[in-house]
UniProtKB/TrEMBL annotation:
Protein name: Nucleoporin Pom152
Any GO CC annotation of this UniProt entry: nuclear pore transmembrane ring
Domain Nucleoporin POM152 immunoglobulin-like: 528-627, 857-935
GO BP term, example: protein import into nucleus
Transmembrane stretches, start-end: none
Organism: Schizosaccharomyces cryophilus (strain OY26 / ATCC MYA-4695 / CBS 11777 / NBRC 106824 / NRRL Y48691) (Fission yeast)
Nucleoporin POM152 Ig-like domain mapped to chain residues: 424-523, 736-822
C-alpha cells in the first residue's frame, strides 16, 4: 500500500508549479523510471548473449541495485505530488526493485533462445550464411537430445606432507630407555590414509622404514590438531624413543593418491650434559686453603660445538661464567654448523651423519681461592649445536640454601661442586716480648698468651722452641734446648711453661693448613729478684739544736713499687703502724718528732710488686734516740719538688748525660750510685764548683733498666747531707731495630699482572714507627733508592714495579738499626700478557702490523678462521669489523667480542654483504689481564693483526622483458628472429652458467637446461627446438653462477616469460564429411590465435571472411559446394594454404553423449589426469568440438578453452585432462551431418 502526504501538510514541489505543473512533473519522473528499466532489460539481454562469469552477473546486480536505489532516494526530494513517499515506503521500494534484479539475473543461465522467447518472442536473430549475408536461423530445429551430459573435473588443493615443519631438533638422554620425543607431521589440504617414514640409526647407520595406517593412524589424526587460522593445515604427532635421523618417505591420502612429501627431516641426538669431575663422588667437596688455586675438571657431553653456563658462589655473592665453542681437540666443523640459527642445520643439505655423534670434552677451570669459607660451583645449562639446551634445576635455590645455612643437602648432585676453603692461621705472642718479659716465680709456672685471628683456636698446633737466657735473641744460631708442639685448649689461647728462657714461636698449623708466625714471635721468660731491704739510720742534727730526729736510709732490692711498714715508739708507748710506698730503690724515711723525748724507730716489714709482705727483725731495723737546714742536691727535672722518678730511654751501647742542680756553698761533693736491674753497679763521688753538674754514664751495654740515685751532698761548710730526691731511671733497649723480608715458602718472589700493586711482607723489630730505606733494581739494571715509614711490625712494602728489591737501612722511633740479612732480595715479576697468533704466515707485513688474506667467499656462504691464543684462560677477544664495497663505499665500523675457555677461537666471518671485510683485533683479556692490546709477539716485537677477506657479490640474472609472450610456429624451418630470442640480463663476473626451467603448461612436463660459457651483460636465449611442443610453455630462470663460483638461486616468485608454440593457423571442419544437412551450419574449427582470416569459394564465387572465434560457422542457406582455400591468424606469421581444399555437405544429424549422458563430477589432485569418454551415434568417421568452462556457483561459467577432434572412427573417444573445469560438447559431426546447426558455443 502506498502512503501519501495530505494536501494540507504537503510541502511545495522543489520545482515550482508555475514553471512545470504537477502532472507534467509526474510524467517526467515516471518517464525517467521507464527509460531506466528499458535500458536495464537491454543490459540484461547483452549479459545473456555473451560469455560471462559469476563476476559479470555480480557487477550487473550491484550496478542496477545502486541505480534503482539512487532514483528512489532522489525522487521524494523533488516533492512531486503523489510521488512524495515516506522513508519507510522508499526503503520497501528499494527492496522490491532489488528482488526483481536478482530474479532477472537468475534467469540468464537459461539459453538465449529461451530468454528471447520469454522476453522478446518476436526478436529476429540473424547469422551469416555461406554467401556472406545474414539470415534468420530460427527455422533450424534444435534438438537438445543430440548432445547430452557434461563432465566436471575438480582439482583438489595440492596436498603436501611435511615432517617437522618448524625445523626443530630433538634430543634424548643417552641412557634413558623410557623417554621419547614427539615431532610433528603437517598435512596441507589432505587427509592421510597411510604414512611411511624412515629411521636411520646413528650407531649402526642402518635405515629402517616404518608404516602407520589403519587404527593407529586414525588415533593419531583424532588426537591431532588443525590450524585455527587455516583449516587446510592439520598436524599429527609421532613419538620417537631412539636416537637417529627421521625422514618422511611416502604418504597416501584417502583417495589412494600419493601426497607430495616436502623435503624435511627430524634429528634426535643425545641431550647435552655436563658434570664436575671429582675424586669424591659421595659429597663432591674438597679441602683447600686460602691462597691455593683450585683446578676443576668440567666434563661436557653432547654434539659439538657446545656452550656451557655456570655460576660460582664465594660465600657472599654469585658470579656468572660462560664458555662458548666447546669442541674436542682437532675437531673440524662443517660450514653448516657455523650458522647462528640451529634451524639452518639440515642433513639433506650435505651434512654427514657423523656430525650428529656426541663427543665428550674436558674443560679445566682454574680459580684462585682468596677468601675462606664454602666455595660453590653449579652448572646452569649446556647447549649443543642443534640448540638443544639442558637446564639444571634449582641453581639459585641451591646457592640460597648455602647462603642462609638452611636445609643444606647431605650430598651434592653431579652438576654442583663444593670446595671448603680453610683459613690459614696466624699466631704471635700477646703481652710478652723481649721488651716486655714474662715473670716466672720460683716453683710456679707462667702462661704465655697466644694471639690468633683463627676462628677455631683449639684446632691449632703451635711449635715452640726454648733457648737459654744469655743468648742474643736476635741471633739465635744454636740449636734450641727444647722443641715442643702445643695444642691449644678449647676456649683458651695459652701455653704454660715452667722454665725461664727465650721462647720462640717457630710454626703453626691447623687441621688443614699451615700458617704464618707474626711478630712478636719471641718471648723472654725470667725469674724476678727477691725483695730485700737494707736500712741505715742517721741522726738529723742542727749545729745549734743538735739532734732533731733521725733519717732511715732504705735501700731496696726487688721490683718496685716497694711498700714499707714502720712504727715510731715514744717512751715505750707504741703508735699506730704507718706505711710508705715508693717506686725507687732508695728512700729516706725521716723521723722528726715534734716533741722531745726518747724515741725508738722500728722498720716492721717490706713488700714489692712481685713478692708479698715480708717481716723484718733485728737491731739493724730499729734505732733509739733522744731527741734533742742543710746542703741539698736534686736532678734538674725534679727541682720543682716532684718526688716521682724520671724515666728516660736509651739505645743499647749509648751513654746518657743527666744534669744535677746543687744547693749550698760551693764547692760540693756529690755522691751518687748507678744500679742495673735494681742491683748496684758503682758508687761515684764527684766535686763540682758549679751549681749545675752533668752526670755522664758509662756505655750502657746491657739491655735492661738502669737507676741513677743521688746519695749525699757535702757543701763547703763540711756539712754532709744524705739526699732523698727522686731517681732517674734509664730504660736501655735490649735490641736495636731490625728489618727483614718475610716469605712463608722461602721463595722471596712475587708474580702478578703488570702495574698491579703488590705487597712484600716485612718483619720489623723495635718501636714504631720504623723508617726504611730500600733499593729497587729494574729489569734494565737501573737502581733507585726509596724510603718508607711503617707502623706495624708485620707491615707490607707496597710496590708496583717489577725488579729486585733489597733493604738498605732501618731506624725506629729512637734508635738506628740493622738489616738482618743485607744480601737478601725480593724478586717481583710481571706475568706475561695474553697474545695471539695465526696458524698461517702473513700475506704481507707493514711497519707495525701483520696482514692475512683469507680465501674469497661468496655472499651468504659460511666462513671462519682460527686464532690461537696464549695466556691464562678464559679469554675475551675484542675485534673491529669494517666493510668497503666494490664502489668504494665505506660502512661504519662495528665492534664485537668473543669469549672462549680454550687456546683457540674459531671466528665466524660476515658474508651477508659483498665487498672487502677487514677484521682487526683490538684488545685481548684473559684471567689475569683486562683489555690489553691484541698483538702477535715475536722476536721483532709486537704487531697488530689484520685479516682481509673479500666477499664476492652473487650474480644476478633476469629476463629483459618479463612476462612477455613469445610466439613460435610448430614445425617451422625458418630461423628465429631477434624478436623471438629471449633476452637475459646478467650482472656479475663472466663467464656465467645459467639454469633454465621450461614447463609445458598443457602436459605439466618440466625440463631443466644448463647453459655454460655465457658472456654478459645480455644473453639471447634461443628456445630449444626439441621443446617446441604444442601449447604454452613457462620459461623460468633457476640459478646463475659466475666466474667466482658464486651461485644465486632465482626465486620462483621472480618474473618469467611465456612461449606459445602454436601450429600454423589451420581450419578443420567440425563435421568432417563433405555433405551437410540443409539448414545446418557449416562449422570449421580454427586452430591458432584469433582473429582469423579465411578465403573460400562457394559455387565458384570467391569469399573472404574474418573470424574472432576458433569456430568459423556459416549457415548452409543453399545447397552447393563450399571450398575452403586458406587461413591465417594473428599468432602465427605463416599463412596456411588448405591442401586439399575443404569441401563439405551434410545429410543427417549425429549425436554425442558425455559419460553416458549424465553429469559426472570427478576430484583429482594436481598433476593427476581424469579420463573423459565421449559416446557417438551416427555414421563414422566422427568429429566433435568440446570446451572447458569455468566452474560456477550455479552452473558452468565462462569458456576457458576449446578443442576440436576429427577423424574418429570409433563410437567412443576418451580424453585425458589434468585441468579443472566443466567439459561439455559444443558440436558433433558424422560422415554427413553436423549438430548443432547454430555454431554459437552458448547454444548448447
Amino acid at each position: 500500500m502506498v502512503s501519501r502526504v495530505s494536501s494540507r501538510e504537503r510541502p511545495r514541489p522543489l520545482v515550482s508549479e508555475s514553471i512545470i505543473d504537477a502532472p507534467s512533473q509526474r510524467l517526467y519522473a515516471i518517464g525517467v523510471l521507464v527509460a531506466l528499466q528499458a535500458y536495464k532489460i537491454y543490459d540484461l539481454f547483452r549479459l545473456g548473449t555473451s560469455s560471462f562469469i559469476e563476476g559479470s552477473k555480480t557487477s550487473f546486480l550491484v550496478k542496477w541495485i545502486l541505480i534503482d536505489a539512487l532514483y528512489l532516494q532522489i525522487l521524494p526530494r523533488f516533492r512531486i505530488p503523489w510521488l512524495s513517499f515516506q522513508p519507510t515506503t522508499t526503503i520497501l521500494q528499494i527492496v522490491a526493485f532489488a528482488a526483481v534484479n536478482v530474479l532477472l539475473v537468475s534467469i540468464t543461465s537459461l539459453r538465449v533462445v529461451t530468454l528471447g522467447s520469454i522476453i522478446f518472442p518476436y526478436w529476429k536473430q540473424k547469422e551469416y550464411a555461406i554467401a556472406e549475408h545474414k539470415i534468420n536461423p530460427r527455422s533450424v530445429l534444435h534438438n537438445s537430445s543430440r548432445i547430452l551430459g557434461q563432465y566436471t573435473v575438480q582439482i583438489l588443493p595440492e596436498g603436501t606432507a611435511k615432517l617437522n615443519p618448524n625445523n626443530q631438533h630433538f634430543c634424548l638422554p643417552e641412557n634413558d630407555k623410557s623417554g621419547f620425543v614427539e615431532f610433528a607431521v603437517q598435512f596441507n589440504s589432505t587427509t592421510p590414509k597411510s604414512i611411511v617414514y624412515s629411521y636411520r640409526d646413528f650407531s649402526s647407520d642402518i635405515e629402517n622404514e616404518i608404516e602407520i595406517s589403519g587404527r593407529s593412524l586414525k588415533k593419531l589424526i583424532s588426537t591431532g590438531m588443525r590450524n585455527p587460522k587455516d583449516a587446510r593445515l592439520q598436524t599429527i604427532y609421532i613419538k620417537a624413543n631412539k636416537h637417529g635421523l627421521y625422514k618422511l618417505k611416502k604418504v597416501v591420502d584417502k583417495s589412494n593418491l600419493g601426497v607430495r612429501v616436502v623435503r624435511s627431516e627430524a634429528v634426535v641426538v643425545d641431550c647435552p650434559s655436563a658434570v664436575f669431575a671429582s675424586s669424591k663422588p659421595s659429597d663432591r667437596a674438597h679441602e683447600k686453603c686460602v691462597g691455593d688455586e683450585d683446578s676443576i675438571e668440567l666434563d661436557v657431553f653432547g654434539v659439538p660445538p657446545l656452550k656451557v653456563a655456570y655460576k660460582t658462589w664465594d660465600g657472599k655473592r654469585s658470579y656468572s661464567h660462560f664458555i662458548d665453542s666447546v669442541v674436542p681437540k682437532d675437531y673440524r666443523l662443517h660450514p653448516l654448523m657455523l650458522s647462528n640459527n640451529p634451524q639452518d642445520i639440515a642433513f639433506y643439505k650435505g651434512l654427514d651423519v657423523q656430525y650428529a655423534h656426541s663427543s665428550k670434552v674436558q674443560i679445566p677451570i682454574t680459580a684462585p681461592l682468596e677468601t675462606y669459607g664454602e666455595w660453590l660451583y653449579a652448572i646452569e645449562n649446556v647447549t649443543d649445536v642443534f640448540g638443544n639446551t639442558y637446564v639444571f634445576p634449582s641453581v639459585e635455590e641451591f646457592f640460597a640454601k648455602y647462603s642462609t645455612n638452611e636445609d643444606q643437602p647431605d650430598q651434592l648432585s653431579s652438576h654442583t661442586y663444593k670446595v671448603l676453603v680453610h683459613q690459614r692461621p696466624e699466631v704471635k705472642f700477646r703481652e710478652c716480648s723481649l721488651e716486655n718479659p714474662a715473670n716466672l716465680f720460683p716453683g710456679k709456672e707462667v702462661s704465655l698468651s697466644i694471639a690468633t685471628s683463627y676462628k677455631f683456636p683449639d684446632d691449632l698446633q703451635v711449635s715452640l722452641n726454648r733457648y737459654d737466657l744469655g743468648l742474643d735473641p736476635q741471633n739465635l744460631t744454636v740449636a734450641p734446648n727444647s722443641q715442643n708442639v702445643f695444642k691449644l685448649e678449647p676456649h683458651s689461647s695459652f701455653i704454660k711453661v715452667k722454665e725461664t728462657g727465650i721462647y720462640v714461636l717457630s710454626g703453626v698449623s691447623s687441621k688443614y693448613c699451615s700458617g704464618d708466625v707474626l711478630v712478636p714471635n719471641t718471648c723472654l721468660v725470667v725469674t724476678p729478684p727477691e725483695t730485700k731491704l737494707h736500712v741505715g739510720f742517721e741522726e738529723i742534727s742542727d749545729q745549734c739544736a743538735g739532734s732533731i730526729g733521725a733519717r732511715a736510709d732504705l735501700e731496696f732490692e726487688g721490683t718496685p713499687p716497694f711498700k714499707v711498714a714502720y712504727r715510731m715508739i715514744k717512751d715505750n708507748k707504741a703508735s699506730r703502724v704507718q706505711y710508705v710506698t715508693t717506686d725507687r730503690t732508695r728512700y729516706q724515711l725521716n723521723f722528726t718528732p715534734k716533741k722531745s723525748g726518747k724515741y725508738r724507730y722500728v722498720i716492721l716489714g717490706v713488700e714489692d710488686a712481685n713478692y708479698g709482705y715480708k717481716e723484718l727483725a733485728g737491731a739493724a731495723y730499729s734505732k733509739e734516740q733522744t731527741v734533742f737546714p742543710l746542703a741539698d742536691a736534686a736532678f734538674e727535672e725534679n727541682m720543682n719538688g716532684e718526688m716521682s722518678s724520671i724515666v728516660k730511654s736509651c739505645c743499647i751501647g749509648d751513654t746518657m748525660k743527666i744534669p744535677v742542680s746543687l744547693v749550698g756553698s760551693s764547692p760540693w761533693k756529690l755522691e751518687y750510685e748507678i744500679l742495673r736491674n735494681n742491683k748496684r753497679e758503682s758508687i761515684q763521688v764527684v766535686e763540682s764548683k758549679s751549681q749545675r753538674y752533668i752526670i755522664e754514664t758509662p756505655a750502657l751495654i746491657h739491655g735492661s733498666q738502669y737507676t741513677i740515685t743521688l746519695v749525699s751532698v757535702e757543701d763547703a761548710n763540711g756539712c754532709k747531707r744524705a739526699l732523698n730526691t727522686a731517681d732517674t731511671i734509664i730504660k736501655v733497649r735490649r735490641q736495636r731495630p731490625t728489618a727483614t723480608f718475610y716469605s712463608s715458602d722461602e721463595s722471596y718472589r712475587l708474580e702478578s699482572v703488570e702495574n698491579s700493586l703488590l705487597s712484600i711482607p716485612l718483619r720489623l723489630a723495635g718501636e714504631k714507627p720504623w723508617y726504611i730505606e730500600y733499593d729497587h733494581v729494574s729489569p734494565d739494571n737501573k737502581t733507585t733508592r726509596n724510603q718508607a715509614v711503617f707502623y706495624d711490625p708485620n707491615s707490607h712494602l707496597n710496590v708496583n714495579k717489577a725488579g729486585t728489591y733489597s733493604l738498605v737501612s732501618v731506624r725506629d722511633s729512637s734508635c738506628p738499626g740493622s738489616i738482618q740479612n743485607s744480601l737478601q732480595t725480593y724478586e717481583v715479576e710481571w706475568l706475561p700478557k695474553p697474545s695471539l697468533s695465526m696458524p698461517s704466515e702473513p700475506s704481507w707485513k707493514s711497519s707495525n702490523a701483520y696482514h692475512y688474506e683469507q680465501e674469497p667467499v661468496c655472499a651468504g656462504d659460511s666462513s671462519a678462521f682460527d686464532i690461537e691464543l696464549k695466556g691464562a684462560s678464559p679469554y675475551l677477544l675484542e675485534y673491529e669489523k669494517s666493510l668497503v664495497e666494490e664502489n668504494g663505499k665505506h660502512h661504519s665500523k662495528q665492534r664485537s667480542e668473543v669469549s672462549t675457555m680454550q687456546s683457540s677461537i674459531l671466528l665466524k666471518t660476515e658474508t651477508s654483504l659483498f665487498g672487502t671485510y677487514t677484521y682487526e683485533f683490538l684488545r685481548l683479556s684473559d684471567a689475569l689481564y683486562d683489555k690489553v692490546e691484541a698483538r702477535i709477539v715475536d722476536e721483532s716485537g709486537l704487531h697488530r693483526v689484520i685479516i682481509h677477506q673479500k666477499v664476492n657479490k652473487l650474480p644476478v640474472a633476469s629476463f629483459l622483458d618479463s612476462n612477455k609472450l613469445y610466439t613460435f610456429c610448430i614445425h617451422s624451418d625458418s630461423n628465429y628472429s631477434k624478436e623471438q630470442q629471449i633476452g637475459v640480463k646478467l650482472n656479475g663476473k663472466g663467464p656465467f652458467i645459467l639454469g633454465f626451467e621450461i614447463k609445458n603448461e598443457m602436459t605439466g612436463a618440466v625440463n631443466k637446461i644448463t647453459v655454460n660459457e655465457v658472456f654478459g651483460p645480455i644473453y639471447k636465449f634461443i628456445f630449444p627446438k626439441d621443446q617446441l611442443t604444442l601449447g604454452k610453455h613457462t620459461v623460468r630462470l633457476l640459478h646463475v653462477q659466475d666466474a667466482n663460483g658464486c651461485q644465486s638461486s632465482i626465486p620462483k616468485e621472480d618474473p618469467f616469460v611465456t612461449v606459445s608454440v602454436a601450429e600454423k593457423a589451420s581450419m578443420v571442419p567440425i563435421e568432417s564429411h563433405e555433405y551437410f544437412c540443409v539448414g545446418d551450419r557449416l562449422s570449421y574449427a580454427l586452430q591458432g590465435v584469433p582473429p582469423f582470416e579465411i578465403d573460400y569459394e562457394f559455387n565458384g564465387n570467391k569469399k573472404h571472411a574474418k573470424s574472432n572465434q576458433h569456430i568459423f560457422t556459416r549457415i548452409a542457406e543453399f545447397p552447393g559446394l563450399v571450398t575452403m582455400k586458406s587461413i591465417s591468424d594473428q599468432g602465427s606469421p605463416c599463412r596456411a594454404e588448405l591442401d586439399p581444399p575443404i569441401q563439405n555437405q551434410v545429410y543427417d544429424i549425429p549425436t554425442v553423449r558425455v559419460s553416458d549422458g549424465g553429469e559426472v563430477i570427478e576430484n583429482i589432485h594436481e598433476g593427476d589426469q581424469a579420463e573423459i569418454s565421449f559416446h557417438f551415434t551416427g555414421i563414422p568417421p566422427f568429429s566433435f568440438t568440446y570446451c572447458r568452462r569455468a566452474i560456477g556457483r550455479k552452473g558452468p561459467g565462462k569458456i576457458l578453452e576449446m578443442h576440436t577432434i576429427t577423424g574418429i572412427y570409433d563410437y567412443e573417444y576418451k580424453v585425458l585432462s589434468s585441468t579443472e573445469g566443466v567439459y561439455t560438447v559444443l558440436s558433433v559431426q558424422d560422415k554427413y551431418c553436423r549438430y548443432p546447426r547454430d555454431s554459437s558455443p552458448l547454444s548448447t
